[in-house]
Design goal:
about 200 residues, alpha/beta, 7-stranded mixed sheet, two-stranded antiparallel ribbon, Small_GTP-bd, nucleotide-binding
Length: about 200
């Protein structure tokens, strides 16, 4: 019997300079789900429940592809949300966030995408911190996005950051409708007493 075990599907991109801890952010977010890699891209699937809806996430980290402009547009296509990460102990990674915002504006195909600024390596590296919380919050306000601080080893904090972003996406009727339409591209069927997904499209939105 065909059954859908989630209501909505969202594509989320995790962007930021190398060494800000993006891969470390992905691993706690993965939970028991394996990471999928393809031509330098780390990709995972994650399910969350929020506001009574079961939500499936595709979370992408374009690892090692930051300088490859030829590939960039394809990976940004169809993303409803962006997590912009920087390392609080590395001022250069923070100073590069405006450039990442420009790239998102250039390549994002969804007009109503949402974004969140993620300050990584907080608390466990507090002694070496060079970008203050006040600076991060002010920057986020200036560019109209959420702000959150995480320790990349704490899965609960990463979940909270994802939920903040998803709440903003859910508040946008256009994004929610597109997510509903996209979810219909997946077949869910029961096998061996559990749910197994047959994916009609795995990559590139």
């Amino acid at each position: 019997m065909m059954a859908m075990n989630y209501h909505l599907l969202f594509k989320i991109l995790l962007v930021g300079d190398r060494e800000v801890g993006k891969a470390a952010i992905l691993h706690p977010a993965a939970g028991d789900s394996p990471l999928t890699s393809s031509i330098g891209v780390n990709f995972l699937k994650r399910k969350l429940e929020l506001d009574g809806k079961r939500i499936k996430l595709q979370i992408w980290n374009i690892a090692g592809q930051e300088s490859s402009q030829a590939l960039t547009p394809s990976y940004y296509h169809g993303a409803q949300g962006f997590m912009l990460a920087y390392d609080v102990t590395d001022k250069t990674s923070y100073d590069k966030i405006p450039e990442w915002l420009r790239i998102i504006e250039d390549y994002a195909s969804e007009e109503d995408f949402q974004k969140i600024l993620v300050a990584n390596k907080c608390r466990c590296h507090e002694r070496n911190r060079v970008v203050t919380k006040k600076e991060g919050e002010a920057f986020a306000r200036e560019y109209g996005m959420r702000y959150t601080e995480i320790n990349d080893l704490q899965s609960s904090e990463i979940d909270d950051a994802l939920k903040l972003l998803i709440q903003d996406i859910l508040s946008n009727a256009g994004s929610t409708q597109k997510a509903q339409e996209k979810s219909e591209d997946y077949d869910i069927h029961e096998e061996d007493g559990g749910h197994k997904m047959k994916e009609k499209e795995l990559l590139l939105g």
